[in-house]
Amino acid sequence: MVYIALLFLLVGIELLYFKIADKYNIIDKPNSRSSHTSVTLRGGGIIFPIAVSIAFFLGYVSWFVTVAVVLVAVVSFIDDIKPLSQLPRFVSHVIAVGLIFYELNLFYEPLWVLPIVFVLMIGWVNSFNFMDGINGITVLYALTAIVSFSFLPINETSLPLLITMGLSCFAFGLFNVRKIAKTFAGDVGSISMALFLGYFMIKSIIDSGQLGYILFFSVYGIDAIITIINRLLRKENIFQPHRSHLYQYLANEMGYSHILVAFIYAGLQLVINALVIYMGAKGYLTLFFMGGFLVLLTFIYLLARNFVTRKMVLRNS
């Protein structure tokens, strides 16, 4: 009953935000680099940091994690309304990651560990933000990760928090997983959710001593890294918006439904995560398996990307 009431509360908060966004013209207008064609309310992902705040008041999450998520959300929301320079956004990310490090006692780890985890965390947050491009993809992928974390025995005590965040995904998804979305997550949603997921990834790895759980982010991670490499080879500014992720090719150039592509990404990741959880339970989730599996996934991704780009060339010729 508590979770049902919480779901209704989150949906109500989302509807209230829509009225505010509509009144103050917080909208996302399509441009040449957009994957949508109609004006859409921006910042519906504000429900994610709100859910973390509710979880804090219910005693599900610590002060440090809450402040970290809310901090990046506030700065990102300002950026959604009026674009900010890189500096305030980067500073907020650094402070937030520092709070996460403090929460997870990472400052007691060997010094060489900190810069590696910091770079990975910042890279993940920004990659997840850049991948927020078509209807449903961010929320379905986030929900896949949350469900996967929930199945790990080490996260049993965190289930109330994970369920709360899962409900926030459902509330947002009601208005985003549509052919014509009513709202987009915006930076406020994608960055705050990325930080939350990154926190749980590090927490799960530390608590279990199992690095293999990083495969929970492998579909997004491989697409993001290969796309960045391709853009660097083309001497493009990787910090500028673009339409060169594989999912964007599928949705924009190939004409597949946004929702179908989003479900493919989330579904593939869910299958991978189920395998990872099974291998972990059986004690087979070794570094050798993780490395070999990443190579296999990368090879499959490159084949798929090459196939799609060839089809695009043929269609445009």
TrEMBL record:
This is UDP-GlcNAc--UDP-phosphate GlcNAc-1-phosphate transferase. The keyword Nucleotide-binding does not apply. Pfam families: Glycos_transf_4. It is found in: Cell membrane. GO terms for molecular function: transferase activity. It is a multi-pass membrane protein. It comes from Flavobacterium xylosi. Its main location: membrane. The lineage of its organism: Bacteria, Pseudomonadati, Bacteroidota, Flavobacteriia, Flavobacteriales.
